[in-house]
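2024-03-11 09:14:02 DEBUG pipeline.ingest accepted 1 chain
2024-03-11 09:14:02 DEBUG pipeline.ingest length=268
2024-03-11 09:14:03 DEBUG pipeline.predict start
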Amino acid sequence: MQATDWFEVHEYPDNIIGIREPWHTVDVWSYLVLGRDLALLFDTGNGFVDIRGVVDAYARSPVLVVNSHAHWDHIGDDWRFERVWVHAAEAADVEAGVSNARFRHWLAPTHFRRPLPVPFDPDAYAIPGAQVERRLQGGERIELGDRTLEVLHTPGHSPGGIVLFEAHSGALLSGDAVYAGDLLVQLQGTDPATYRKTLAELASLASSVSAVYPSHYDGPLDAGILREADEAAERVWAGAAPSTVADGLEHYACGRVGFVFAEGWRDR
């Protein structure tokens, strides 16, 4: 691992570079997949500090950004790159950018674990829009010259969520579909029933997966996390009681994977 004042950079097998932002509570990862002819950057993080400097230190070929989805903590530096792809359902969100008001809560000092190494005004910070070159649907194969990643549409957390899977290495870039922590099903645009189906589909892929590279918290993860997420979801849908209910949210603790729903979600 290498560390800058803001990023942790991890070099993984199969020429995958993990770029982590652990000093904010969302603890988000972006991943750089190095290919002979093209480098693919899966998400661009919070945008508080220019991620391009890290990317350019590793990429020896042109860079294509592919967004897992369009939530603010995944598209922060999209605007710094010439080529951006995202699922069609969230392309308009990437192009619109994110106003300060929409995520001002996350800019409070309590969410930062160390001072930022650059001038930063939380009252003014906003994410500029980025032009989307291609609107994905799912099922596409992205060729990097000497390796291929398949786009899998995984809605539920958001309408246009995707993961990327490389069959040759077994690497799965899971975005916000699966990680070790609380999976969020209470946000605007989330769909609990659709999320349940997505988790079942990812669990069916587990035997072909060698490592899961999640977009938040600890990683990489073993493929068992995919089955655990699906099994946890089925327990919740079978009627398991929430661990806690507070502030309009139902929290379900299910081992490595948990869920956060809006209170009363079963009745909607």
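2024-03-11 09:14:41 DEBUG pipeline.report DSSP finds five helices and 17 strands in the chain.
2024-03-11 09:14:41 DEBUG pipeline.predict end
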